[in-house]
């Protein structure tokens, strides 16, 4: 799933893209489901309307009655995720004080920390960490938060996550690290920041795809320069399609990157899984500028 789609689904999961119905005015008549009842049923989710309206006292009473503080909605988002997404700090504080699980993940793998990154609420970072948010070096959920921050260009979040224990090389559930997200975005400033924080420039994923090939395909010359200067392998080939950075830049029609890679010594004779060189691809695409560079 591409990151743009992931972000949309993430926002939907925590309730940002769904309509809100109005909550009843009398807090005392609200049950867990938002319907008038004498007592809350244990295990039912806290009504989204209560969170949307910021009704702290009503939510507190429901928790006293036995409402499950971590009961998820249909998308697997917990009340804490929903409160963060809706920017309801008082509800967030209540849920944290009452012991909400800060590491519970939705069906899509999003945690409260990821919700805070998506909505760019930096002030929540320390509070979530103080309540146990997992930022161990190779935390999967931490890596998802870091990759999301890198993709969105939230430099303060990237610094915060790494400074609080997360490795800049941590990989998410798909085996992707933040530097790859930044290179594919592309964001030269984020690539530079992650390299400065210790990200490995040539660390590949399971398909042997390293950040340089993403930068080359995206046409980010500054990213390519930074990664090569940091030691990235200019001729690394992926296991899928057998692309090198030069082949990737060629098929994506990135002449400036092609010229720079050639200048830096990229091997023009390497072939992909079809047995084609970069020059073969340029000729097949009738890309005269690229042909001139590669001949």
Percentage of β-strand residues: under 5%
Order of helices and strands: HHHHHHHHHHHHHHHHH
CATH topology of one domain: Serine Threonine Protein Phosphatase 5, Tetratricopeptide repeat
Q: What class do helices, strands and sheet pairing give?
A: mainly alpha
Summarize the structure.
It contains 17 helices and no strands. With 295 residues, it is an all-alpha fold.
Task: Explain what this protein looks like in three dimensions.
With about 300 residues, the protein is mainly alpha-helical. The chain is built from 17 helices and no strands. The chain is elongated and about 75 Å long. The model is unreliable at about 1-5 and about 10-40 (pLDDT under 50).
